Amino acid sequence: MSPVNSHHLAIIGGSGCYGFPELCPHSVAAINTPYGVATGIIASAEHGARRVYFLPRHGQGHTVAPHKINYRANIWALKSLGVGKILALNAVGSIHSPPGTWFLPNQIIDYTYGREHTFYDDFNQKINHIEFTEPLNIHLINTLSQVLDATSLNVIAAGVYGCTQGPRLETAAEIQRLERDGCTMVGMTLMPEAALAAELSMAYVSLCLSVNWAAGKSTAPITFDAIAACLAQEHSRLSQHWNAIISALHEAAL
Questions:
Q1: CA atoms within 13 A on the CB side of 162
Q2: Residue 56 backbone phi and psi in degrees, to 5
Q3: 15 with 231: CB under 8 angstroms?
Q4: Which are the contacts of 238, defined by CB distance < 8 A and separation ≥ 6?
Q5: What is the mean pLDDT of the chain?
Q6: Buried b (16+ CB within 10 A) or exposed e, 72-95
């Protein structure tokens, strides 16, 4: 990929967040990448001298399962648009904190398999062993934490995201294993997305919403009606702060 002026911001929407017409009303023409086309229609808007893009990870209306998402096309397309910072929105099950809690994870354990997880799988390319000790950008974590601390949202600015294969939810024994490993939340979409962004030198941060207790952490059953209700309520509360979030992330020094 040719060098680009990577100073724009992208928001990747997860479950329950498939479009931001109030923030990004303009559709971007389909972008051909060496890995196919992006999972969903990319939208954009001017935000001062910069642009903000929105990409629905699961496509419009949640039509693409976590293990089927074309992560490489998504990240490549955003890079080609000049994106240098990514805010990923992720729905998670929580191991220690109740539904309705927002997390800014700072670590990842990857339990996925069989996903296209690198841009460097061609023998004609020089392999790029990216440094991934801190997989999520600490400067963006701190910036988001400062903005969200001034809101009424319940935010924990730390945590370990255990990324499972999906699309099924986990068993209680699997959650016990993840907890022993040090995970504080579980989801299905942070990897390989974060690693691919790192391969293209894009600063990446995740804002996760706990939409249910992880399996075995509550006596109540996990229902998708309850998950949908939590998503709707908390994203409505978050929407009041998008202008502040976008402005702060644009200005954040890396």
A1: 22
A2: -80, 110
A3: yes
A4: 102, 153
A5: 91
A6: bbbbbbbbebbbbbbbbbbbbbbb
Encode pLDDT of 177-189 as tens digits: 999 999 999 999 9
Residue 1 has pLDDT above 60, yes or no: no
What confidence tier does 160 reach under pLDDT thresholds 50, 70, 90? very high
- DSSP-derived 3-state class of residue 102: strand
Can you tell me the distance from the alpha carbon of 95 to that of 159, in angstroms, rounded to the nearest whole number?
10
Indicate the burial class of 1 (C-beta count within 10 angstroms; 0-12, 13-18, 19 or more).
Answer: exposed
**C-alpha pair distances (Å), 195 with each of 37, 164, 178, 215:** 19, 15, 20, 27
Rounded to whole angstroms, the Cα distance separating 170 from 94 reads: 12
Q: What are phi and psi of 206, to 5 degrees?
A: -120, 135
5, 80 Cβ separation under 8 angstroms: no
In angstroms, the Cα distances linking 238 to 16, 34, 154, 192, 234 are: 13, 35, 11, 26, 6
Nearest residue to 88 via CA among 54, 37, 114, 51? 54
How far apart are the two ends of the chain, measured CA to CA in Å?
A: 22
C-alpha dihedral over 216, 210, 102, 165, to 10 degrees?
Answer: 100
Return d(Cα 254, Cα 249) in angstroms, integer. 10
The per-residue pLDDT for 5 is 56
